[in-house]
Structure formats: C-alpha cells, structure tokens
Amino acid sequence: MLNLLRKRWWKFVSVAFLLVALVAGMYFPLSSGITAVGPEKATEGQTLSLAITTYNTNFENNKVPKVYLRGNELFFCANAVTILSPVNLTAVFNIPDSLGINGTKPFNVVIDDAVGGTFFLRSAVVLAGSNPSNGATHTCAKDLEIHASANMSYPYREILYESIRNLFYHVPLWFAMLLLLVCSFGSSIAYLNSNNMLYDVFAKEAAFVAMLFGALGIVTGMTWANFTWGTPWTNDPKLNGAAVGMLTYLAYFVLRGSLTQRDQRAKVSAVYGIFAFIIYIIFIFVLPRLSDSLHPGNGGNPAFSNYDLDNRLRPVFYAAVIGFTGIGYWIMSLRIRYTLLLDKQQEQIDTPYESMVS
Amino acid sequence: MNLAQEVRYLVAKELLLEWRQKYALGGIALYVVSTVFVIYTSLNQGNEELAKTTWNVLFWITLLFTAVNAIAKSFTQENRERNLYYYTLMSPQAVILSKMVYNAGLMILLTVIALAVFTVMLGSPVGQWAIFSVVVLLGGLGFSFLLSMISAIAAKAGNNATLMAILSFPVILPLILILLKLSRFAFVAEASFADVSGLLVTLLALDAMLVALSFILFPYLWRD
Question: Is residue B74 a contact partner of residue B86, using CB atoms and an 8 Å limit?
Fold first, then answer.
C-alpha cells in the first residue's frame, strides 16, 4: 500500500482525470430546451398562436424547426412557424374542433430542430373542449423522430437546468469520501491485527481527508439543494446520514486528541473507528430504505442511472470520480508523510543522546 | 471456568457493588424523576394537550440522557488496580458481557421508572401496550449494549461526560430513529405485530450486531 502511495504515475493520472472533468463539466453547453410557452390555455377549434421561448438554441430563418403539440394519441403540427430571434419563435396551430376532450387535457410542446435535436416542455398547453370525437387525432403525418442534439451537450432538465453539472462535483466527492472511510476502516483493523503504528497514521489521515471531502460534499450539496429544492437543508435521510457521519468522525478526532499516550491512542481510536464505521454504514444504507428521500433512486424517485446519467454525462462523471478519489489519496499520502516526519523529529527530541551516538 | 460461569460471577459482583452503594442507583432514579418533573412543569404553562410526537421524542431523549449518565460509570467506578485484577482472572469477553447484562437490567429498571413517571405526570398516548413494551425492552437493551462499549472506550480517555456524549450520540442515532418510528406504531390502538415485524427484526438485528461488535472489539481495548 505504502509502495503504491510512493509511486508517482497515479498522481498524474488523477490530476489529468480531474482536469478533464473540471474543464469538460463546465465547457459543454446544455442541450436545447423550452423555457416558456404562452398562452397556456386554448380551446378546440381555435387558431392558436403560441409564443415559445427556448434555451440554448440558435434558430435561423433558413432552418425553421418543426413544432408539434402532443397529448397522448392527439398530435398536431404547426401550420406556420415564424422565427423572431435565436431563442424566440411563434407557431400557429389550427386546432380541430371535434377532439373528444371532455373537460381539459394537457399537451406537450415538442420542437424538432436540426441542430438542437428534439426537445419538449411537458404539459405546456391545456386544451379545453366538450365536443365528441370525430375520429381525427392528428392534423399531419406523425413524422416525429426523436434525435439528439448534433453537438456534445448535457441534458436539459426542468428544475435542474444548468445545475446538472453539479453531478460531476457533488456525487464524486461523496464517492471519494466513502472510499477514504473504507480505507480508514481497513487500516484500523490492520492496526489491531499488527500493532504497526503506520496503520494508525493511515487510519487517522484517511479519516481526516474523508472529512475534508465530506465538508465539500455538504457545501456542494447544499448549493444544489438550494437551487433545486428551494432550501439548503431538508429533513432527508441522506442529509442526516451525511451529518451523522461528520459528527461521528469529528468525535473520533476529539477522542484521539484526549488520549496522550501513543499506543493507547492508536488502539482506542482504532476500536472506535471500526465501531463507528459499521454503524455509519448501517445508517446510510439501511435507514434511508425505511423512509423516503428526495434523492434520486429513493422513495419512488428515478435513480440517476435510469435517465439522468445518460451517455453524455457518464464519461465526465467517471473521470471526476477517478480524479477526486486520486486527489484524495494524494492529499492523504502527503499528510501521512508529514505526520511520519513529525514523529521522527519527536523521537529525536525525546532521545537526544541516542541520536547523537548513532 | 467457562464463559457463562464467569459472566454469572461478574454480574453477581456488579449487583453486590450496587447494593453496597445504594445511593448511586437512587441517584439515577431521582435523575429520571426530576427530568420528567422539569418537563412537566415546563410544558404545563398553558395546560395544552401534549402532542404524541412531542411525548415520543421527550420520552426517548429522557431515556437517552439517563442511559448515558447511568452507564458512563461502568468502567470507572472501580479503580485501575481492581480492574487489572479482574482481567487476570477473567476473559475480556466475560468482562464486557457481564457489563452489558448488568447494564441491560439497569436500563430496563430505569425504563420502567421513566415510563411510570411519564404516564403519571404527562399521560400516555400508548394504544398498544404489548407492542410498546417490546419496543421499550429492545430499546433499553440496545442502549445498554451500545453505551457499555462506548463507556469502555471513553474510560480509556479519562471518561469525561462530554466525551461519553459526543462519542455515543452519533452512533446511537440509528437506534433512536428506529425506536421513534416503532413507538409511533404502538400509539395506534389497532396496530398489530404484523405491521411492525420488519422494523422489529431490524431492531433485533441491530441489538445482536452491537453485542457481536463489542464481543469482538473489547478484547483489543482492555489489554493495556
């Protein structure tokens, strides 16, 4: 383990990965999306002139996109599309008057652009109607083909918007923290088995860097939560798990600080480290299953892997995981070397005579 | 001597010690009563009905603080030399098991006192006493198992009250959350054991895991 930490290649690799993740995470734009549609209400039989505002599009007059209104089996094409600006257009629909809508029905607005790909706003327009259906369900051929944006871009999601990039920073920081805590746990076990002081230094420094990453994870998470959920802190099991982890390991450092004798400090803190880690793992993996969480993959929310972590996010995300973990281990190895040097210096101060002789 | 015999002797010793210093037990019982009385007088300002959630939280927090105070002295009430003497006679597993068994008994006694005082002073929202007794029993066991081990750790570091609290509170949280959830079920009169079986099994597993962890880790701790 220590031999690997002394080697140099993995430090370059992790810095490279982290740089790639930082640059790529910020460089590529978001896919096109629809931000606003007006008017939001219409009735059947009406000639509807929709004003659509979009995000990250570059409409030009010689490349007019196709615009559709879609509500399950009902499907209408825009008769005329006028481009007002690169991010504004007007679409005119002749809505048939016998649709069989009894009451109201929400419709998605879909835009099919050659550059930006296919994008839509869910339930953008509500159609009201009372006439019975005459069987007509669409005003044009259903030639809608969903295709992705022509250029590399990250998915445009309502609520998340540009903050989807935080996926590359918040989540990998937690991954790195957990891996460092596992390292600390393993070192504590190794210390109890061997009584080798080196493992004690390992356990302490791994826990220290893990807390550093945990704090960054909390800060990035709170920023994200403030943007998407409207509040920096909610009573969410994963947030509580994070807070408990921080408290546990801060207590671990207080315990270390209150013990002065080195062997005893190593032994007692190793025992507490193992005890606390196992209970912490139970806390973050078992308890969230007993109650709902706002996080993806919990309480009926789709997991990231279902649709958010699509192939455009995946490479950058994994690069960030490798990069942050590598940087964490690098900081840890520096701190270990520093502590070992301090220990050596302390020994020389403690035994001046012996060091002079040898 | 086998393990069971050693544990039996050590528990008997604990009981004898407790009997000889009756004021310690009386002290901790008084601690429960006065805590509940403080809660009672503080809450009774406007004669409002106490919400079930508030009762639940206050009950378990009172028990938590009582447990921390009662169990903190486990490894420090006897002096170092005497502890050394026990360690030469008995296996470390017997020492920690006897502490856990004794503290479990103590916790059950304190839980009963706390429950009685709570019911008398603040009323009781409990609808299903069968479920609630099981929950309280398993909760008391969990508290005593976890805090016995933490007090062994804190004893090595001079055993100040702050250390005992900060070491135990984060790790006791999973237990408390399960207990609060289970108690809420017990407040409903129509609740049956089938509703809470999953949570009860989780609680039992947690208790068993705490015993196993202490059993494995304590031998490393006492060797000085």
Answer: no
pLDDT per residue over B170-204, tens digit each? 899 889 988 998 898 888 888 788 878 888 888 89
What string of DSSP letters covers A63-114?
Answer: BPPEEEEEETTEEEE-SEEEEEETTEEEEEEE--S----SEEEEEEEEEEET
**Do residues B80 and B155 touch, judged by C-beta distance below 8 A?**
no
- Residue span of the structural domain in which B140 resides: 3-222
Contact between residue A56 and residue A29 where contact means Cβ atoms under 8 Å apart: yes
Give me the mean pLDDT over the A188-203 stretch.
Answer: 92
Give the lowest-confidence range in A94-108, A202-216, B92-106. A94-108
Q: Any CB–CB contact under 8 A between B96 and chain A?
A: no
What is the C-alpha separation between A270 and A110, in angstroms, rounded? 59
What ipTM was reported for this prediction?
Answer: 0.88
Q: Do B206 and A267 touch (CB under 8 A)?
A: no
Cβ-Cβ contacts under 8 Å for B63 (sequence gap 6 or more): B110, B111, B114, B139, B140, B143
| A33-129 CATH fold | Immunoglobulin-like (2.60.40)
Q: Is A244 on the interface with B (CB under 8 A)?
A: yes
Higher pLDDT among residues A178 and A357, named by residue? A178
For helices B52-71 and B161-186, give the axis angle rounded to 10 degrees: 140
Domain count, chain B: 1
Inter-chain Cβ pairs, chain A and chain B, closer than 8 A: 72
> Which of B57, B143, B217 best tests the A interface by mutation, with the highest count of A CBs <10 A?
B217
Residue A140 has pLDDT above 90, yes or no: no
Match domain A2-25+160-351 to its CATH number in 2.60.40, 1.10.10, 1.20.120, 3.40.50.
1.20.120
CA A315 from chain centre, in angstroms, equals: 13
Note the helical H segments in A229-313.
237-258, 262-285
The Cβ of residue B12 has, within 10 Å, a number of other Cβ atoms equal to 12
Report yes or no: B137 and B104 within 8 Å, Cβ to Cβ.
Answer: no
What distance in Å separates residue B163's CA from the closest CA in chain A? 7
Helix segments in A195-261, DSSP class H: 197-228, 237-258
* Residue A282, min C-alpha distance to chain B (Å): 8
Q: Give, in order, the Cα–Cα distances in Å from A282 to each of A312, A341, B33.
A: 33, 36, 34
